[in-house]
Each structure stands twice: as C-alpha cells, then as structure tokens.
Amino acid sequence: MADNLFSHLISNADADRTALIIPGGGVVSYRDLDRMSARHANALGALGVKRGDRVAVQAEKSLGAVLLYLGALRLGAVYLPLNTAYTTAETSYFLSDAEPALFVCDPAREGAARDLCRDGRTTVASLGGSLDPVVDEQEDRFETAAVSASDLAAILYTSGTTGRSKGAMLTHGNLLSNVAALKECWRYTAEDTLIHALPIFHTHGLFVALNLTFFSKASAILLPKFDPDAIMQALPSATVLMGVPTFYTRLLSHPRLTAEACRHMRVFISGSAPLRAETHEGWRRRTGHAILERYGMTETNMNTSNPYDGERRAGTVGFPLPGVSVRIVDPATNVPAGTDQIGMIQVKGPNVFKGYWRMPEKTAAEFTPDGFFITGDVGKVDGDGYIHIIGRQKDLVITGGYNVYPKEIETEIDAVPGVAESAVFGVEDADMGERVIAAVVPDGSRDIKAEDIEAHLSERLARYKRPSDIIFLTELPRNTMGKVQKDVLRRHYAEGWAPVAARPNAREVENAR
Ligand code: AMP
User: Which residue's alpha carbon is at the smallest distance from atom 8 of ligand 1?
Assistant: First the structure.
C-alpha cells in the first residue's frame, strides 16, 4: 500500500481540509474524496475491473472524472484518459490497442461506444449515465490495493504525428517521485489553492496539477476549461495558476489583469509549450510576477524547472529537478555538448516511464545503452546552467546539408515591428532537400510585408537560414496544450495554402497533437 500513489494523495489525516472547489457545485473535502473514491473503486470492481486492468475514460472534465482516476489508482487498475476531442475512429484505435476492461464515456457517446465494444471484451458505462447507479450502491470503504512502485498507474497516449499514437506506461513510482520533486521545487504547501483550468486527460492537468494538489493537501478550484473571466474571478482566492503559454497570452489581453488583481497569488507556472520571452516580460510588467517555466513530457513527467528562488530566466526551462539527470549530446557522436552547443536532450531518473505499451522494440530504440531516454527535443545549456529548448528534432530543417533550427529564425522574425508571432518549418525541395518556410501572424499595428521581414533577416542571418517563402496567417494552428502544429502547417503549405485567411479547422488542429 505504501507504494500505491493513491495513499500519498488522499488520506484521512487531512479529512477536513478542502481538496476541490467546484464553482457552482460546492466544496469537496479530503474525507469526501476518500469516501467517494472508495465507492468508485468498488464500482470499478463491480463492473469487472481487476488489478492491472485498463480503465479508459473519455469524459468531460468533472468531479466524476477525478474520482474515476482516484478509484482506478486505489484498485490498482491502470487509468487511461482519452481526449474528448477524439473521433470514434480514433477512439476505436485506442480501445483496440489498450484492451481496457472498462470504457467510461459521456452519455452522448454511449451508443457509439457500445458499437465499438461489441466483441464483449470491454464493458461500457457512462459518467452521468449508466455508471452512476452502480457507484451509488457501493460502500464508501475500500482497502487500497498493495502495488509495487514499478506497477502501472496510468497509460497516456502520446501525439501521433508520425505513425500511430503510442501508449506511455507510467508507474506509481514515476508519478510519486515526480510529485515529490515538484512539491519541493515549487515550495508547495497545504495553504496553496490552485486555479485548475487545464484538461485532465494530459500529463499537465492530471499529474502535475491534480497530483501536486492532493500530495500537498492543498486545494484546487476545478474550472471546466480555460476561460479568462473565470480565471480573473478566481485570482483573489487562489495562490497558484498552472497554464500553457496560451493562458498567459490570452490573459494579458484581459483589461482587468493588474498587479492588484494578482496580489493574493504566490506563483504562476507555465509549461507544455514554449513561453515566449515577450509574454514573460509582459506578464512581469503587468502583474509584478515572473512566470515560472518548466519542461516535461508525457513519457518523462517533469524534467526541469526554473528556480522558485533565484532568477526565472525568460526563454529557458531552468535546471533539472531533484533526482533527474538531463544531458545534451551531439546526435552523431553521443558525446555531451559543451556550453551553448545545441544537441539532443536525454533524460534519466525515477520520473522516466516504463516504456510504450506493447511496443518493446520502439521502447528500446528510444533509450541509450546507459539508460537515458531520448526525448526528441533539441536544446542547449547556457553558461549559467539554464536549459533552453530549441524545438523538436523532427522540426529541424536540413537545407543543402545545413541544419536550421526554426527557433533561431522565429526569434528574429518576432523582433520585426508589426509581427505578433511566427512559425518556421521545412518543406521538401528537389534541389536542397528541404526549404525554409515562415508563417507569420501580424499584430495589426502596421501594414507589414514579406519584404520588411526579408530586409530584417538579410542583415542578421546567413542566406541558407532565410525563408524562401513567407506566408501571412491570422493565427497559428495550435492544439489544446498550446503547441504550434507544424505538421498542419507543412501539410497546408504543400496543398497550396491560401494566404492570410486560410486556417486549418479546429478539429484537425486538435487531432494533430
Ligand atoms: P507532451 O508529451 O504533450 O507533454 O509534449 C511534450 C513536449 O512539449 C516536449 O517534448 C517539448 O517538446 C514540449 N514542451 C514541454 N514543455 C515545454 C517548454 N517549457 N518549452 C518548450 N517546449 C516544451
């Protein structure tokens, strides 16, 4: 039981403390969570789920979804959250790959879910529908299953931008070690109240935000989704906000965002996608707070963080978390890179996942012989030890044999007056292998032309790094976690992107993660 993550998250010793505040839906104490998660664990058992079985959940963010997570942990089952934006066809792949004993969905999807699970291997129930009477009739006591630290707690599917989505297997030990490291690093205490506006099917909202709240016996205001007005309303009663960079850029355009509005706040944390230095500076000017940026991924949990005390350096992700080793190596030789030298980021530690579900070969290929996980991220360490993320390796553009790191070009383009943001990507080229293309979003302050950008770049960048084509867009395609979808840009460019007005539709962007 000591190794079961659940017993570190919920305990009766803290029974009267508030765990969750549901706007319009009351307050949930740790005692409530203990009892309700016991009911859910019993209900899962009643529906045939056994230790080690997968419980797939594709449901709107709600207290019920949180309880399913806790109930699954408690039972020793493997929690498998799925993005609600997935189509039936996508969901079908996850179900056939993971073979869950139970699939819980929203009532509106239950019919389609039953069709998908016709073979009878997976039981279907709906949250707010057929699951509820089963939960209601259960006892509110449950003996938390004894598991070992290496037993699976969850499977989270990663982005399927190249090939099929892979299920990252996360153990109780992975999640526990990471939440302990974050608590220490961010000085989290029972006095904290988090504004929780992230989705809970992803590592950020589920493990960083929820686990840290429960592990610290703190509280979270559980908002159904990101809504700037709701965040502004929650600020005076909260101490922490965790968000993706889009949260911060959108909040910056809120007229009521001031230092006074943030007076009660202790820390603002950002991750899952790069936070632009401009956003960091803008936030500091408006609120007096330096956003604390951290870096992690589904497979590794969190790896690095800017310091709580000390300089939170814009454009960097800080230092390795306690117990986590991060190294940057030359991809060709695997020799550690020197200061400011760009290379591949590799990570080792108790935070690193057990492997990809039913993909032993793929798993083996992603680890070095000395046990480091090859993240696929490109980065460097500066003279003061701060780690910088340059981008994903697959976004590296190789043109005429030269490596072009999109971030370097994007930083230059973003400095041109009239540019709000940009994304640089490579497209196939018969002559050069790849060509550099820039998608630019104007900020509307002036009339900006491709020639203005070209003139700026010609003074600053070698010719091979300069874009052969600059297209203007009204916004960049981003997924739910705020990541720019370069695959979508590449594809639309190849299909003859109609400039300015063309936007990939929302579903497509959502799916491209
Ligand atoms: P996911 O598995 O969806 O959490 O995505 C993980 C990827 O997001 C990492 O491999 C990075 O490429 C990116 N990422 C996460 N945090 C940051 C950050 N602070 N800055 C830049 N990229 C980040």
Answer: 272
CA 500 from centroid of its chain's CA atoms? 29
pLDDT at 367: 97
- Please give the CATH superfamily to which domain 226-393 belongs: ANL, N-terminal domain (3.40.50.12780)
State the average pLDDT for the chain. Answer: 93
Q: How far is CA 128 from CA 109, 110, 134, 237, in A?
A: 12, 11, 11, 29
Distance CA 411, CA 407 (A): 6
- pLDDT of 511 reads 32
Indicate the SS3 state at residue 171.
Answer: strand
Atom of ligand 1 nearest to the CA of 299: 2
Q: Print burial letters for 330-362: b (CB count within 10 Å at least 16), e (below 16).
A: eeeebeebeeeebbbbbbbbbbbbbbbbebeee
3.30.300.30, 3.20.20.70, 3.30.1220.10, 3.40.309.10: CATH of 396-511: 3.30.300.30
The torsion angles phi and psi of 112, rounded to 5 degrees, stand at: -65, -40
0.85 surpassed by pTM: yes
DSSP-assigned states of every residue in 213-245: HHHTT-EEEE-SS--HHHHHHHGGG-SEEEE-H
Of 30, 18, 448, 482, which Cα lies nearest the Cα of 293?
482
Ligand 1 pocket: which of 246, 319, 389 to mutate (most atoms within 8 A of CB): 389
pLDDT 10s digits, 485-510: 999 999 888 887 654 433 333 333 33
Q: 72: which residues sit within 8 A by CB, 6+ positions away?
A: 40, 41, 44, 49, 55, 78, 79
